[in-house]
Request: fold
Amino acid sequence: MTAKQRTIEQDFAEAFKSSEAQYKRAMEAIAGGITHDVRRMTPFPLYVEHAQGARKWDMDGHELIDYVMGHGALLFGHGHPEIVDAVAQQMARGTHFGASHELEIEWGEHIKRIVPSVDRVEFTSSGTEATLM
Reply:
């Protein structure tokens, strides 16, 4: 087959061999081979090795712009130094207390300050839970 006869999917598979191998592995362990529908791609999803700022690198070394940014949660990008520091400080204090604590009150008070129309806040675990509430 000549280069002109190759399909885009074949070129993709050739360039992203490590992702294809990981996808085949995932198909044996994970239903549908993916853990979130946003990752569904044809012919297979990309597997990322690391990320920094607005970029991520796949397992074959391709540098990519991260348009997904943690499904919108990473407003400051991957590995922002101030956020990494804040997370490290909190990790040293504890992670999931399974109990009420002062920081959740402070967060609620902060939201009330920045959104004047809010009387009280309610924390939820997901967008689905928030919609149901």
